[in-house]
């Protein structure tokens, strides 16, 4: 799930960036269902009509990236192709570089553009997003790439346990769909533009009854509906980063980032526990609040990426997803 460059190209590009003052644009994806972390083959979740679903495969292509800055100038990244997979969460994926002017919108398309969609995948190394994959993301020369492959099981017996297999392989040039994401000014930093994006796979099934034929490959009405849901039903959600010295209110507690320290203040919850976990669910830091309701977690030494900070008060858990540089 990376945008691959040869070593020489990367060094050359880095030299140009250093000379021009350009900054990297990168994306980090987390995979959720109704706000819960998605684990393929394990997580069972309800869709809009209450039916329980379990996903076994969830991957899709993104291409056609561009950003629009505050002056209305559009910068395109035509060579960036991403294969986003649910089993590969938390990777920082660079899609291109931009100048100093803050950007306020990201445009991207789900799928592969028509210029590349009918290429032979053997023309690319297997490490390239458009190269050969297992399981395959290529349907054939005529059909092109699978823009999105969603597989799993749904409960159609009413016992709450998914038992009926489904496969939605969405492909065809007509299904190349644009997604737009507004970018608040706070995401633009002196270190570049990193966009933490949460994906909610439950949104893909909006208004799906999950009855009848559920092995659907191509550009049928169901394939089209799923692609439309992906760009119109909040499948993509931009999360708010915490960088430099920033402050956020989360319910009745305050989180402040001061260099390598995460300061949590909750006067109504003295002696409560505060934990910091990574996207694999591992606790990487924890502190008990003092009598004033203050706790400080040292984040130095932690890898850049997304983490979840949680306040364990007596009557509830309150969490916030944060980005650490």
Short synopsis of the structure:
This protein is mainly beta.
Structure description:
With 325 residues, the chain is mainly beta. 9% of the residues lie in helices and 47% in strands. It folds into 2 domains: 7-238, no CATH class; 246-324, Immunoglobulin-like, CATH 2.60.40. The chain has helices at residues 7-20, 114-117, 221-232; strands spanning 23-33, 36-37, 44-46, 52-69, 74-77, 82-85, 92-98, 103-110, 138-140, 144-154, 164-171, 177-182, 188-189, 192-200, 215-218, 236-238, 246-250, 253-258, 261-265, 273-278, 283-288, 294-298, 305-312, 317-324. Strand 18 (253-258) and strand 19 form a beta hairpin. The protein is globular. The protein starts with 6 loop residues before the first helix and ends with a strand.
């Amino acid at each position: 799930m990376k945008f691959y460059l040869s070593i020489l190209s990367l060094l050359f590009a880095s030299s140009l960036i250093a000379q021009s003052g350009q900054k990297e644009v990168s994306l980090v994806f987390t995979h959720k269902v109704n706000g819960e972390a998605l684990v393929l083959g394990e997580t069972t979740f309800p869709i809009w009509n209450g039916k329980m679903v379990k996903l076994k495969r969830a991957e899709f292509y993104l291409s056609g990236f561009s950003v629009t800055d505050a002056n209305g100038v559009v910068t395109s990244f035509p060579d960036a192709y991403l294969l986003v997979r649910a089993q590969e969460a938390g990777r920082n994926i660079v899609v291109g570089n931009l100048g100093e002017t803050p950007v306020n919108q990201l445009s991207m398309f789900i799928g592969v553009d028509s210029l590349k969609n009918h290429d032979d995948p053997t023309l690319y190394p297997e490490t390239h997003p458009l190269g050969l994959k297992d399981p395959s993301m290529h349907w054939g020369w005529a059909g092109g790439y699978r823009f999105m492959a969603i597989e799993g099981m749904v409960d159609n017996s009413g016992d709450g346990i998914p038992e009926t297999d489904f496969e939605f392989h969405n492909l065809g040039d007509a299904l190349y769909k644009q997604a737009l994401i507004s970018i608040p000014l706070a995401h633009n930093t002196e270190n570049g533009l990193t966009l933490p994006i949460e994906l909610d796979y439950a949104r893909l099934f909006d208004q799906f009854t999950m009855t009848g034929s559920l092995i659907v490959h191509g550009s049928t009405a169901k394939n089209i509906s799923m692609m439309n849901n992906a760009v119109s039903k909040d499948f993509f959600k931009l999360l708010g980063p915490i960088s430099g010295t920033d402050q956020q209110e989360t319910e009745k507690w305050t989180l402040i980032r001061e260099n390598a320290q995460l300061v949590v203040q909750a006067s109504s919850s003295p002696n409560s526990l505060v934990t910091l976990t990574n996207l694999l669910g591992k606790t990487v830091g924890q502190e008990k609040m003092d009598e004033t309701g203050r706790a400080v977690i040292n984040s130095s030494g932690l890898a850049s990426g997304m983490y979840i900070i949680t306040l364990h008060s007596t009557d509830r858990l309150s969490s916030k997803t944060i980005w650490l540089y």
